[in-house]
Amino acid sequence: MPRETKTLTVVFCSRYQQELPALAHQPFPGPLGERIFDNVSQLAFTDWLSYQSTLINHYGLNLADPRANDFLFEQMKAFFFNEGQGMEIGGAPAGKGGGPARK
């Protein structure tokens, strides 16, 4: 198999405050999806998906309820951009960073 040279796209990740591999595509339409695509790394988005599952299970969210989606979008903004009132499991406000970045 011949060797290929590929280009790696990176972003300065708003979550981990360093250059990391970028998302391959916008996660969902709209301004927030575009902002995430431009400012969030694949690592941070993967971490968000795990945290989102934890939030859904912990709070017993019904994703058919628009209020649950609004809650998750607010948590997403807090997780990625430290905006709004994010919650850690247990009810305490979420801190920014969430630990060291993995490579």
Main beta sheet, described?
2 strands, antiparallel
Task: Tell me roughly what share of residues is in helical segments.
Answer: 40-55%
What are the low-pLDDT stretches, counting only 5+ consecutive residues below 50?
92-103
- Helices, by number, come to 3
The topology string of helices and strands comes to EEHHH
CATH fold topology of the domain at 10-81: YggX-like
State the strand order across the main sheet: 1-2
CATH architecture of the domain at 10-81: Orthogonal Bundle
Average of per-residue pLDDT values: 85
Give the CA-CA distance, first to last residue: 27 Å
What is the oligomer described by this structure?
single chain
Gyration radius (Cα, Å) is 15 Å
Structural class: mainly alpha
Strand content range: 5-15%
Q: Judging from the principal axes of the Cα atoms, what is the shape? A: elongated
Overall strand count: 2
CATH homologous superfamily classification of the domain at 10-81: Fe(II) trafficking protein YggX
